[in-house]
Request: fold
Amino acid sequence: MNRLRRTAHAALICLLTITALAAAPAFCAGGDTPKVARNISYMAQGGGPKLNTLDVSTPVGAKLALPVIVFIHGGGWRNGDKVMGAGDKATDFTQEGYVFVSINYRLSPAVTHPVFAQDCAQAVAWVYSHIAGYGGDPKRIFLMGHSAGAHLAALISTDTHYLTDVGVPMKALRGCILLDSAAYDMRPGAPNDLIPKVLIRKAFGSDPAVLKSASPLVYVAAGHDIPPFLIFYVATRDTSRQQSETMASALTAAHVPVEVKPAYDKSHRTLNVGLGTEGDIPTEQTLEFLAKYK
Reply:
C-alpha cells in the first residue's frame, strides 16, 4: 500500500528496475490516485441501472497486464454499495500493482437468492471479457468480499455453475479472500447467532432446500478447480470462527489450499475498514497471499 511505502521509495525502485532491465516493461505507480472508470454497467440487458454497475481502478502508468481484485461489498444482502464497502482499497491495492474492481449487485427485498450470486457472477464475466482494456489480466482474478460479500465470493468460487454458465473458466480465479462471514453454511443447525440468522431469514427465507443451495460449504469438493482461499474471522466472534474453521476443513479435505486467520483487536466493521492501513496485520497477510498466487 502507498500508506505502507513512501512514494519516493517506490519511484526509486521502479527507476532501478527499468535501468537493470533496459527496455523491459515494469510497473511503477505514478501517484496516490489511480485512474478510475466509474459506474460501468456489467449487464447487457435487465438488472438495475445503478445496482448492476462496477468501478475499475487502474494504477497510473501501468505497463503490464496486472492481476485483478474484484471486491464484493457486505450489508446483509440488503444494504451497502461498491463505494462505501470498498473504502480506500482501490487506492491501496492499485499502489501495490493490482487492478481493483468494486461491484454493486441487486439487493433484498427487491430480489432473492440466487440473484445476488448471479449478479456477482455477471460482474466477474464482464471483468473476464473486458479487463484487458483497463490494464488487467483476465486470467489472474482474485475475489474479495466482506460479510455478505464474503458469502457471495465463497459461493461463486465453490458452486462452479455460477461462473461457468456465464463463460468464466474457474481457472481464471487465482484466489478468494473472505473477510468475516458467518454464512458459509446456512443450513438449519449450522452455528450462528441471532443477527446473522435474522439477516439470512430476511434475504433467503427459511426453506431448508434454499438455504442448502445458498451454502458455499456444500459445494466444496475435489476436482472442481476451486481456487485457494484466505479466510479471516474476527477473533472474538465465535460463530464466524466456527463457520470459518469448518469451511477451511472442507477445503483442506478437498485438497484446496486454504489459510485461516483470526483477526485480533478487530470488529466486524474495522476488519474491513482497516484492510490497507499501516501496521495492519490482515493487510500484510493479504499481500502475502496475493503475492503467492498471482
Remarks:
- The chain has a mean pLDDT of 89.
- DSSP finds eleven helices and eight strands in the chain.
- The chain has one domain: 34-293.
